[in-house]
């Protein structure tokens, strides 16, 4: 599924298997994808980033609840969830709640459960993340102080029958220049 | 192309707006947390918290406390509790004024 412009999308009780990006949210510049609400849905065995939120447009207020994300073993170096929006404000209000993010099929190379480079406010709560090179690979958005990350109550390591991550949480370079004093 | 690459690299080190990593289980990973932040963020910063995560010691140089063993358990004798209660009785029965 490729969502390029939307005001409200509901995806419930579904199964997406085997696409390059099982769900691609990719608005072009000056367009918006708002309020994609996904519940009880499998995103399995992708050959690229399983969920990819990207593009030069804005993706805002979208939630993934009780979902599963996995990647294929066919290609090395994949990520289950990628947020790489390039719009100045970053992807805003993106929530993952009670999701399973496992390297189920043993994707090799440098892999990521979450690869976040273009997010503003992002919540990952009560999720299980196992079997990746980096469970959470977090980089602050290019706009200073835009990235507000909340990681609460997750198991980032052995869970669901899958092994540990090489690095549980990777915090890439950033600073606190606007709010440290 | 080279200029663009350098430009992106510079922007990529932007400041975090806030960071809350709390109450997660990160134990067992080869490395629980790799912190590459370029500025030393004080623990008192109101919107920066890495707290109460198993497997992550927020004070990296401090030895993780060991699990108490059976030999270190302290039992309070019952007679101490009895005497203490007796002494408290007059105070408890004293009228309030």
Largest interface: A-B, 41 and 38 residues
Strand content of chain A: over 45%
Oligomer: heterodimer
Largest sheet of chain B: 2 strands, parallel
Count of individual domains of chain A: 1
Q: Tell me the overall shape of chain B.
A: elongated
Give the uncertain stretches of chain B in residue-range form: 1-12
Question: What gyration radius of chain A follows from the Cα positions, in whole Å?
Answer: 15 Å
Query: Average pLDDT of chain B, to the nearest integer?
Result: 66
Instruction: Please write the string of helix (H) and strand (E) elements of chain B.
Output: HEEEH
Q: Give the overall silhouette of chain A.
A: globular
Question: Your description of this structure?
Answer:
The complex is a heterodimer of chains A (181) and B (97). Chain A is mainly beta and 181 residues long. Chain A has one domain. Chain A has no helices and 20 strands. In chain A, the strands form three sheets. In chain A, strands 1-4-8-11-14-17-20 form a seven-stranded parallel sheet, with no helix packed on it. Chain A is globular. Chain B has 97 residues and is an alpha+beta fold. Chain B has one domain. Chain B contains two helices and three strands. In chain B, strands 1-3 form a two-stranded parallel sheet. The interface between A and B is large, with 41 and 38 residues. Strand 18 of chain A pairs parallel with strand 1 of chain B.
